[in-house]
Amino acid sequence: MKTSIKKKLKILFISSDTFKPFRPDVKVLFGIKLIERGHQIDWILQSGKPCIKSKMVHWHGNRVFVGRFKKAQLMIHRLTNHLFAFLNELKIFKLTGKNHYDFILVKDKYLVAVLAIFAAIIFKTKFIFWLSYPFPEAKLYKVKTRVAPYPLIYTLRGVISSFFQYRIIMKQAKHVFVQSEQMKKDIAEQGISPNKMTSIPMGVQLEKIGQSIFSNNTSKKEKRILYLGTMAKERHLEFLLKVHKKLLITVPETKLYMVGDDDDPQILPFLKKTARELCIHDSVIFTGFIPRKEAWELIKDAQVCLSPFYPTFILNSTSPTKLIEYMALAKPVVANNHPEQKLVISESKAGICTPWDEDAFAKAIQELLNNPYLAHQMGKAGRIWVQKHRSYDTLAEQVITTLQSFNE
Asked: Which of 187, 228, 247, 280 could bond 259 through an S-S bridge, CB–CB 3.0 to 4.6 Å?
């Protein structure tokens, strides 16, 4: 149900996402849900594909100012693309002066956020910052764990971006949207008032995901468990392979589906090699990147879905999309005690949370595989909870309500 509001918002939105954005918190929340409610959004985004000239296009009925992009094969090309993005983002002054926006909203970009602060002051509007990930800490963490390809550059970027984020951008922002309650707590420790922040976690577009189909596969000998998401090295997904090896001792007919990949071409071969070394490769299916709708079909045919998050400061403040998608598809979940996962599963009763421990994780999966009725009830509870709390219609209303409070 769409809310009735006093005034339709007019927003200039600038994001690290490229055009066309694919992340649901941008594509769905702003690109569809806010526009459906009559709000106007102008976008400044860099092209996600080779584009020799900046241009203005229409997307979902709103204007997008698309910046140039060159296929990056060398470091010089990547630097050139950063320059193209910056030149495109300088449009912020002309657009703000001409269009009288209610808000300039910048997501996950630092230099342009500083420009937005000046534009907001000059043209007497409001600057909003949106942070989806602890980027400064992540850069420094990669240096600390010796996985940064250029340690000195990563250190400098981490220190500089941290200074800008906490001492300038968030101090000057009218309001800050963050990814989770844990991120809100972490940022508050840096001196930013909790009253200045609103957490908007990840959700699902329920009309796209459709009515869930819960399948126990009771007529099939194979029992399927599934992980959906990035295979990034810092997530330590060899953990799941070791869990699966333990599970096969008690439930030998289980197959583990690993759905996804990573930008690092070495990750998937590493995980496949680990599966061979553990002598479980015949019962593990790696799909690589597949379209989201195909991934949802695989989820529908699984009995238990898995959401492990390696316990580090960097991942503790994330809001797992996979968890909400599993629940929207009425699947019971086994997850470790990550702050948001623990909160969501505690509220929804949609699964089991365990420590980051191979034996505990395997035991929880076994419990659900051996008790289809319990798994079914958890799946139903998860779907109901998502409908109430995590549809993008619900999240859109939260964003609108927050922004509207500054226009009263």
From this structure: 228
SS3 category, 355 = coil
In a domain, residue 2? The reply is no
Do 48 and 154 belong to one domain?
yes
Question: What CA–CA distance (Å, rounded) separates 402 from 404?
Answer: 6
| Statement to judge: residues 67 and 212 lie in one domain | no
- For residue 304, the domain's CATH number is 3.40.50.2000
**Cβ-contact 374, 350 below 8 angstroms:** no
Omega before 331 within 30 of 0, i.e. cis? no
Mean pLDDT computed over 366-373: 96
Residue 231 CB: number of other CB atoms within 10 A? 21
5 within a domain of the structure (yes/no):
no
Considering the domain architecture, whether residues 134 and 167 belong to the same structural domain is answered as yes
Q: Which two tokens stand for residue 89?
A: 């983002």
What is residue 111's DSSP assignment?
H
- CB neighbour list of residue 146: distance below 8 Å, 6 or more residues apart: none
CB atoms closer than 10 angstroms to residue 113: 26
Quote the DSSP letter at residue 37: T
Contacts of 181 (CB under 8 A, 6+ apart): 199, 339, 340, 343
pLDDT of residue 70: 87
Range of the domain at 347: 206-389
Question: 369 near 217, Cβ under 8 Å?
Answer: no
Cα–Cα distance, 140 to 156 (Å, whole number): 9
The total domain count for the chain is 2
CB-count burial class (<10 Å; 0-12, 13-18, 19+) for 303: buried
Q: Cα 276 to chain center, whole Å? A: 31
Asked whether the CA dihedral 68, 70, 71, 72 is positive or negative, the reply is negative
Digit-coded pLDDT (tens) for 239-255: 999 999 999 999 999 99
CB neighbours (10 Å) of residue 346? Answer: 10
pTM for the whole structure: 0.89
User: How much of the chain exceeds pLDDT 70, in percent?
Assistant: 94
Whether 275 and 248 have beta carbons less than 8 Å apart is answered as: no
Pairing of strands 55-59, 40-46: unpaired
97-141 confidence digits (pLDDT tens): 999 999 999 999 999 999 999 999 999 999 999 999 999 999 999
Q: Where are the alpha helices (DSSP H) in 301-338?
A: 313-316, 321-328
